[in-house]
């Protein structure tokens, strides 16, 4: 039955790269109807199991309706638990500057207590432009990395629009940032 074969398409839910490597393979969740694919390093998988692998959302067996990212309006993708028993996307955690990981190696729990309130009061211009006004004020927003630009947007909205990037930070660190569509086109 060809319909039962899971299609291995689409890249990593975190970095969007479609390639896996021997030392950092793409791992696909075996949960029913789940389409999560992540690199081992992008999701903090210490050891890739030889058998089935389940993302944290599927592993938790929590009703899907209850699993919602605290930082954005999107429900699909690679989520992990927050320290307050909620959920957040790994990508949202990486790109919202004040978010921390309790354990950097396993990338969990995701700690939101340092995120300033004002991030949760921003409006996502991408949601507004896409006719999703009801979602525009949910979650927390990042701001365009261009000096002086005040456009704000959800991390996942920027990811779907191809507006996220990794730039050279201090001390060999990577700086995760994003740009509004206007400034991204000028990069």
Report on the structure:
One of its GO terms (molecular function) is nucleosome binding. This is PHD-type domain-containing protein. The protein has 187 residues and is α+β, with helices and mostly antiparallel strands. The protein has a domain at 117-184. 20% of the residues lie in helices and 18% in strands. The chain is built from eight helices and ten strands. The protein has a two-stranded antiparallel sheet with strand order 1-2. A two-stranded antiparallel ribbon has the order 3-4. A hairpin with an 8-residue loop joins strand 7 and strand 8 (152-153). It is globular. 34% of the residues are buried.
Structural descriptors:
single chain, 187 residues, alpha+beta, two-stranded antiparallel ribbon, two-stranded antiparallel sheet, 8 helices, 10 strands, 20% helix, globular, disordered N terminus, Zinc_finger_PHD-type_CS, PHD-type domain-containing protein, nucleus, nucleosome binding, Znf_PHD
Secondary-structure content class: alpha+beta
Order of helices and strands: EEHHEEHEEHHHEEHEEH
Q: Give average pLDDT, whole number.
A: 92
How would you sum up the major sheet?
2 strands, antiparallel
Strand count: 10
User: Could you list the spans in which at least 5 consecutive residues all have pLDDT below 50?
Assistant: 1-9
Helical residues, percent = 10-25%
Q: How far apart lie the N and C ends?
A: 47 Å
Shape: globular
What Rg, in angstroms, do the CA atoms define?
17 Å
Residue fraction in strands: 15-25%
Enumerate how many helices there are, as a single number. Answer: 8
Strand order of the largest sheet: 1-2
């Amino acid at each position: 039955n060809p319909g039962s074969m899971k299609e291995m398409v689409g890249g990593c839910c975190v970095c969007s790269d479609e390639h896996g490597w021997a030392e950092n393979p793409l791992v696909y969740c075996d949960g029913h109807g789940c389409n999560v694919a992540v690199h081992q390093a992008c999701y903090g998988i210490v050891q890739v199991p030889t058998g089935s692998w389940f993302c944290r959302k599927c592993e938790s067996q929590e009703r899907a309706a209850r699993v919602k990212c605290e930082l954005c309006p999107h429900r699909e993708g690679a989520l992990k638990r927050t320290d307050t028993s909620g959920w957040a996307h790994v990508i949202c955690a990486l790109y919202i500057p004040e978010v921390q990981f309790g354990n950097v190696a396993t990338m969990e729990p995701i700690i939101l207590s340092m995120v300033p309130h004002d991030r949760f009061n921003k409006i996502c211009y991408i949601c507004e432009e896409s006719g999703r006004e009801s979602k525009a004020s949910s979650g927390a927003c990042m701001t365009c990395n261009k000096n002086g630009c005040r456009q704000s947007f959800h991390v996942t909205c920027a990811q779907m629009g191809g507006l996220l990037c990794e730039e050279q930070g201090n001390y060999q660190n990577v700086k995760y940032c994003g740009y509004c569509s206007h400034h991204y086109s000028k990069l």
